[in-house]
């Protein structure tokens, strides 16, 4: 179980997050919702260790830790809003790069990538470069890349924002499929329909914290 307590973050003296508490339950999907600018992405980036909180505590299974530590241990995976694929590498290399850099053999990384490509209907695209893919395909590659590290918790920043409505339903089905396999997921979204389709719990970001 991942628990955040008292998370506070200011940008240029403006309070974005004000002592926020959040619990992420194992095997569940938590949607973080709220209007634009309320700090959803900032919160996700803090959980992922891409942004540092000014105050607050993070615990994993009751033990205090840091996002960097959780990422190093492969506990957290992140699917970025703009996919953040490496344009110079093929789809397959995008998926195998991080595992091989963290010590997995190329052979094992390739086998895992082939499995994920098949699972996410991307086998045909294995040798393609990101620029040639559709938005939905890029999204699935970004998800496959995060899954390749076998995270316990997968974080998604606005996973549907670049997709048309039909693809949005596909992403919802995918997340629900991952849940069946026991994955813990945290989804930042401003899309309430999507949140309703995937979430066990909806966390509404508090508003009006500006000082
Ligand atoms: N690096 C930064 N420097 C200064 N201000 C920032 C920075 N990152 C975010 N902000 C500000 O913090 C506030 C919250 O931004 P954030 O992106 O977390 O909101 P959001 O709820 O995810 O919005 P959206 O739904 O539009 O993505 C905004 O006012 C934004 O301008």
How do the helices and strands line up, and which of them pair or pack?
Layout lengths: L1 E10 L2 E11 L4 E5 L6 H9 L6 E6 L2 E3 L1 H6 L3 E4 L11 H11 L4 H14 L15 H13 L5 E5 L7 H16 L3 E6 L2 H7 L2 E4 L7
Parallel strand pairs: 3-8, 3-9, 6-7, 7-8
Antiparallel strand pairs: 1-2, 1-4, 4-5
The chain binds adenosine-5'-triphosphate (ATP).
The site of adenosine-5'-triphosphate has 12 residues, from helix 1.
Protein name: ABC superfamily ATP binding cassette transporter, ABC protein
GO molecular function: ATP binding; ATP hydrolysis activity
Keywords: ATP-binding, Nucleotide-binding, Transport
Low-confidence parts, pLDDT < 50 over ≥5 residues? Answer: none
Quaternary organisation: single chain
Could you tell me the mean pLDDT? 91
The CATH top-level class label of the domain at 24-38 and 76-204: Alpha Beta
Distance between the termini: 32 Å
Largest sheet: 5 strands, parallel
Fraction in beta strands: 25-35%
Approximate shape? globular
What is the CATH third-level topology name of the domain at 24-38 and 76-204?
Answer: Rossmann fold
Q: Give, in spatial order, the strands making up the sheet with the most strands.
A: 6-7-8-3-9
Helical fraction:
25-40%
Cα Rg = 17 Å
Keywords: ATP-binding, Nucleotide-binding, Transport
InterPro entries: AAA+_ATPase, ABC_SmlMolc_Importer, ABC_transporter-like_ATP-bd, ABC_transporter-like_CS, P-loop_NTPase
GO molecular function: ATP binding; ATP hydrolysis activity
Domain ABC transporter: 2-211
């Amino acid at each position: 179980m991942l628990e955040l307590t008292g998370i506070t973050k200011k940008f240029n003296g403006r309070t974005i997050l004000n002592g926020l508490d959040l619990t992420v339950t194992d095997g569940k999907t938590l949607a973080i919702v709220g209007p634009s600018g309320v700090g959803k992405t900032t919160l996700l980036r803090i959980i992922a260790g891409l942004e540092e909180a000014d105050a607050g505590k993070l615990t994993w299974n009751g033990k205090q830790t840091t996002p960097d530590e959780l990422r190093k241990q492969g506990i957290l995976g992140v699917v970025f809003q703009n996919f953040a694929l490496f344009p110079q590498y093929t789809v397959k290399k995008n998926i195998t790069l991080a595992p091989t850099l963290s010590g997995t053999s190329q052979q094992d990384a390739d086998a895992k990538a082939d499995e994920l490509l098949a699972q996410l209907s991307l086998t045909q695209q294995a040798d393609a470069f990101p620029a040639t893919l559709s938005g939905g395909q890029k999204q699935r590659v970004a998800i496959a890349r995060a899954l390749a590290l076998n995270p316990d918790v997968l974080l998604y920043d606005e996973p549907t924002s670049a997709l048309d409505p039909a693809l949005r339903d596909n992403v919802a089905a995918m997340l629900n499929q991952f849940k069946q396999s026991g994955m813990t997921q945290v989804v930042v979204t401003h899309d309430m329909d999507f949140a309703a389709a995937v979430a066990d719990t909806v966390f509404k970001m508090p508003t009006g914290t500006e000082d």
